[in-house]
Amino acid sequence: MREPTNDVVELRGIDKSFGAVRALQQVDLTVAAGECLGLVGHNGAGKSTLMHVLAGTLAPDRGAIAIRGADETASWAVSSAQDRGVRCIFQELSLCPNLTVAENARVAHAGIKGWGWRRRASRLIVDKLDEIFPGHGVKGDDVVGDLSIGQRQMVEIARAFTQTDEERLELIILDEPTSSLDAVSARQLLDFVRTFVDAGKSCVLISHLLGEILGYSDRVAVMRDGQVVANSPAAEMSRDGLVAAMGNVAEAQQGAAVRQSSEHVRADTPVAVEARPPTQQDDQAVTAHRGEIIGLAGLAGHGQTDLLLQVFQAGKRARGKTKHTRVMQSCALVAGDRQSDGIFPRWSILKNISIRSLGQLRRGPLIRTAKERELAESWRTRMGIRTPSVDNGILSLSGGNQQKALFARAFGSDAEIVLMDDPMRGVDFGTKLEVYDLIRSEAGNGRTFIWYTTEMEELENCDYVYVFRNNRVVAGLSHSELTEEKVIHSSFEGEG
Amino acid sequence: MDQLRQKLGEVPWVWSFLGAAVMWVIAVYVADGKGAGDMLSAAMSFSVYFVIVGIGQMFVITLGPGNIDLSIPANMALSGALAMKVMGGSDAMILVGLLAALGSGVAVGTFNYGLIRILRIPPIIATLSASFLIQSVAISYGRGLRIKPPEGLGEFMSVQLGGVPAIAVLTVGLAAIMAVVLGRTPYGRGLIAIGQNTRAAWLAGINVEVTRYLAYTLCAVFAGLTGALLAAFSGGASLNMGEEYLLSSIAVVVIGGTSIAGGRSNVPGIVGAALFLYLMVTMLNAMGAGPGMRSLMTGLIIVGVITLAGGETDT
Amino acid sequence: MLERLLSPRFLRAALPAIALAAVLLPIFAIQPRTMSYFGLDLLLNLAIPIAFATLAQMFILTVNDLDLGIGAYVSLVACIGATLLNSAPLLGVLALLGCVAAYTAMGVLIQLRNLPAIVVTLGMSFVWSGVAIMLLPQPGGEAPAWLQGIMSFKPPGVPFPIVAAVVMGLVVHFGLLRSATGTILRGTGGNARAVQRAGWSLLRTKATMYTLAGLFGLLAGLSLVGITTSADANIALRYTLLSIAGVILGGGEFVGGRVSPIGAVLGAITLTLAVSFLSFVRIPSEWQVGSQGAMLILVLAARAIITRREGTASWKTA
Amino acid sequence: EDLQDTSDMRIALSNNYAGNSWRQAMLKSWEENADEAVSAGVVQEAPSFTTAENQATEQAQQLQNLILQGYDAIVIDAASPTALNGTVRQACEQGIVVVSFDAVVTEPCAYRIEVDFKGMGERQVEYLADRLEGSANLLEIRGLSGTSVDENIHAGIAAGVEAVPRFEIVGSVHGDWTQSVAQKEVAGILPTLPEVDAVVTQGGDGYGAAQAFKSAGRDLPIIIMGNRHDELTWWKQQKDANQYETMSVSISPGSSTFAFWVAQQILAGREVPKQMTLPMLTVNQDNLEKRLEQTQEGSVTNKTYSKQEVIDFIQQAKSN
Ligand SMILES: Nc1ncnc2c1ncn2[C@@H]1O[C@H](COP(=O)(O)OP(=O)(O)OP(=O)(O)O)[C@@H](O)[C@H]1O
Ligand SMILES: Nc1ncnc2c1ncn2[C@@H]1O[C@H](COP(=O)(O)OP(=O)(O)OP(=O)(O)O)[C@@H](O)[C@H]1O
Ligand SMILES: [Mg+2]
Ligand SMILES: [Mg+2]
């Protein structure tokens, strides 16, 4: 990896506060041409806020911004950032769901207009998609709202990398781009980032997957509580070093994450959930016994989320039954697409957590507010949600912390079955380990988990894993049989 | 200043009360200090109906964009006629008559919801279409004839305790209960959650359809109740007595600080807004403004108040 | 091919046209005279102003707002058209421009102060009505001859209302759905923050949409007064609800910037016809009002079948 | 005796509103009369059509459909005196006889059976001038703003007050011809008003005004009544209790039958004046009981017209 030569951007002494929260304190950061800077830090460390400042969507309280050595602080805004070739893929979806893929490209590129602009826009974005994500399956005239979250993420990424003739492109900020992608697409993206950077452009990559950061960036900066606490070439960094710098308590458990086999559970305990995808042709079904952790694997968008919804819907029925599904206990769901499936944007953190538990918080017809607060506070501590007060709006939380609130909602409820829809999107490394622990101990107490995940290492936590392909279960692997090769093999070749 | 704004932002209903107070002061000033108290009691006795209807409409509006009940006027006409006919002028039948009005409300609400749920008709059009049907039922049932309310009920509607109408006190009680239902019961929470994000609400375990059904029914029941009360108060039901409630019911809700985008509701604000609208008309009447001027001023005042009160704190 | 024709997506796009056919064909059957040039002209000419008003409402709905004042605004324009525009053309034109400017200002105010549009437009509806009453305390006035002339224009072959509907539907379709700028305007309804982050000014989009709404409201008022030849202050109050219903019937949605101009025009025509359909059949007088409701329900019930099918289809891709 | 046989002719009633007792009575009178006429073979059919909403645009649409259906005559109670003109002209051009009544249209090709609304306003003030001595304060309850009926009655009242300088209108509200609205508006303005000696109305608002005065604890002024059963009943009660005296002026809903026969006579070839003025229906202290007896409970006072009455009326109008 080569040494940075000249700086594309330079941030000096950036401060940003939201009310009492000091999101950024005296942050210095530079990105050089031809460099991929990895940015890591716990949830709420200030990474996204810093990137908003860099992209011009948030004005810092103090500090200076320079582009190629020229001070731009005074005039820094979205448009000047765009003029200077700085682009950002935000953590939250920035596509217009009512527009087509091509039209969304047009929104981002003011230059696409005039006769035949649709064709040009469509070609531009589809070419880029082909380049980054071969086999993406997205068409230029698909309406974004109809795409899966993974596909939307691909479109958003491709859109940021497209370049019309008159545009400059120097630096791309990727804020947790892989959180909604499956392993294959994530790898495609990261490989593309390397070619992009090797061509002399720059990139800031934010991720909670330390492997991605260490494997693909030239330099790594670590943020903690609004400050950059470490900044050195990736080659000099180790996984342990990163974890230590991020200040995670859970670091000790690292590596010990492998779960003890618990196959005995299968035999002894009653069935909690039985569900067959409606298109399944053989009699293979997803079965979960009480106290088990069941993993759903396979490429994104192959029917795992649908199965969870199918179970959830049956669970809402009084008798817990629909045509293909049997659910014996009550269900809660941890959404992965938190914007559309999870949070209530106008509510406080407290109300977002308690909504699933109102029934049990009741005395007579009324909710006991003291109990409600108790519930929220206790889960804030258990999940480590970073906020001065649970009465703050949910949107004041960083992405990962919002996700933690959704965990708190499900775990704090009386549901016996917890369905998880790729729930670790945006959750930081340390917290993940804590949540794994929590899930295991809850399972030990008899809770059942059905867990769709796109990350291989998470499957290690499961007692039994079902691999999906084309809306069907194509393989069932017990913990002892589970290997990455088997999962990947079934994901691709399970059946036509 | 910012802090004050924020404080006020937490209690958006103060604006409507503030507005009402300003209107009242101006009206009293214009009338050379005459009738300040009488003006308030008149405002209270007439605001009652707007408050009750408004609360129902608020439950529907809270469900989120596109949810508005336009069948309120027809519903009021029908239930008013029904109540008066059932009561047949006899004090003994008052309770039965009121129950009949509530029952017709339940029927209307169920019908509205059925159109929305089973036929998937967007609520605005569903309730608009329903209102035509209901109006026909009201016409064919009542034949446009006006039936007098029982003496006892008519008198009760204008009982005053030291200038405060008894019915206003009851209405404030009802509003308080509904505020608690909205803020402190699982049902209310579920309703507000649906208004913010229906899918997320469903996934959080809320019985979406039951909640929506209850909201539409509650709205219709409140409109039905208002129909009966208004008929009693104004000496009989008439086909057109609900007409002005079409827009007013929406106006009191939104001026009262409920977010039209759903997910934020405000019961006290409705009371303030109803008083505000009534006193504003009183003020303009007292000033002797002509019809055009009065309408113009009404509009400017509403826009002015909402601009002062500031917008939604979030988007 | 048949599969494509029966696909839910296609059916949903075709729904406004199906609904229109469902109303129009029975009318043709009951009263064959309506199928003539003269018949169609009579049957449809009052749909022109409604279609304009519906498009105006659609612009507002595109940016997730709702206009409760469009009916009053159209009435005001009609009043100006029947008074000032005739008696003092220059003043009349200025007044009309002022109306459009007021709509622009309303959009700016709503955006700058982040106000709920529904309250502002409701408040403004009183303003429009007030000015209209001051201008025309009692019904009357006379539309300028040129305006009456335009509205009674008889093009060869195809009745004027059909020509007008096609033209306005296509113009707005290309302007809003196909043009590069229209994309930004609709995107604002879909995800305002995303559009803003891409460097576009939300103030400008809001102002543009409200200006367009003001402009189409203006066309609605003028075409209305061109047909009726004179005006009154309440002449178009019901356009408010009718226009909302028209947009929705045409496949638009309340939030999310999903609208269809052609659908809206068809929706407006369908509603106009649904209302008049009933004077072709004999119904006891007390049930006449109700049967209009029943008509609307029937027309919209088609949605149920289609959306239900679509519901099962989208289940898979959710 | 008709010059032409009308037994195969069709007359339609175009109505724009059904939401109050007056319109209901009007429709009922029409239907009863039409049924008789049809069974007597005078006309082939005479259906009525009502629009769902009280709007000129919708009524214009309805008229156009009636034209398309080829009716021989159309009788109109119009939503607007002018906004239907374009359509009415189209009807005339098709050779259809157009007769408007109650709320008439100004289009010259149509026949107008008018009510002297301005006179109705003047008449009220004249009556009060007789009743009240010295200066007096008047409260005016107006109807729906922006309509011609409201403007005309108001103009009559204004002219009347002009002529009687000792009268002053101290307050004016719009009751929208809806009793509950009138009651609300009057109750709102009352606290700001000095002593009120009389209330001038547009009919139908009297009872609401009386309620408002009662609940404000004010002395009852002379309230000009309309034609509703409850107004007359209230008046009767007050009369019996304390010799309360007032008057009532109104338009008879049976004017629809008058319009029907006019249309029939025109079709039958009789020459009819383009414009006729129907007398007002008045109730005074003496005929109150009789009128009340004839009025169905909850409805309005009515007078329907027979064919012969209408023929006589036409003759008289022609000779004037
Ligand atoms: N709009 C806001 N209002 C209030 N506080 C905010 C707002 N946006 C961010 N914050 C706070 O600023 C801090 C930094 O948030 P930021 O989103 O930058 O974290 P992050 O490092 O990106 O976290 P994550 O990994 O979870 O995405 C957090 O404490 C967050 O709660
Ligand atoms: N998969 C889904 N994702 C999101 N929202 C859904 C889904 N399925 C249903 N809904 C929403 O929830 C509503 C159904 O609400 P409700 O909570 O009553 O469902 P349910 O209890 O599962 O159904 P039911 O009681 O009718 O069997 C639907 O109208 C729809 O809006
Ligand atoms: Mg972040
Ligand atoms: Mg249910």
From TrEMBL, chain A:
UniProt cross-references to Pfam families, sorted A to Z: ABC_tran (PF00005)
CDD domains: ABC_Carb_Monos_I (cd03216)
Keywords: ATP-binding, Nucleotide-binding, Repeat, Sugar transport, Transport
ABC transporter domain mapped to chain residues: 9-250, 265-495
Keyword Transferase: no
InterPro entries recorded: AAA+_ATPase (IPR003593), ABC_carbohydrate_import_ATPase (IPR050107), ABC_transporter-like_ATP-bd (IPR003439), ABC_transporter-like_CS (IPR017871), P-loop_NTPase (IPR027417)
Alphabetized GO MF terms: ATP binding; ATP hydrolysis activity
Annotated protein name in UniProt: Sugar ABC transporter ATP-binding protein
UniProtKB/TrEMBL annotation, chain B:
CDD domains in the record: TM_PBP1_transp_AraH_like (cd06579)
Principal cellular location given in the protein's record: membrane
PANTHER family noted in UniProt: ABC TRANSPORTER PERMEASE PROTEIN YPHD-RELATED-RELATED
Keyword entries, A-Z: Cell membrane, Membrane, Transmembrane, Transmembrane helix
Keyword 4Fe-4S: no
Name listed for the protein in its UniProt record: ABC transporter permease
Record-annotated membrane-spanning stretches: 12-31, 43-64, 94-115, 121-141, 161-182, 213-233, 245-263, 269-288
One GO term describing the cellular component: plasma membrane
Localization annotation: Cell membrane
Topology versus the membrane: Multi-pass membrane protein
UniProtKB/TrEMBL annotation, chain C:
Keyword NAD part of the UniProt annotation: no
Recorded GO MF terms: transmembrane transporter activity
Broad class of the protein's primary localization: membrane
Compartments (UniProt record): Cell membrane
Transmembrane segments: 12-30, 42-61, 91-110, 117-138, 158-177, 207-229, 235-255, 262-283, 289-306
Coiled coil, from the record: none
Topology of the protein relative to the lipid bilayer: Multi-pass membrane protein
InterPro entries: ABC_transp_permease
One Gene Ontology cellular component: plasma membrane
Keyword Transmembrane helix set for record: yes
Keywords (A to Z) from UniProt: Cell membrane, Membrane, Transmembrane, Transmembrane helix
UniProt protein name: ABC transporter permease
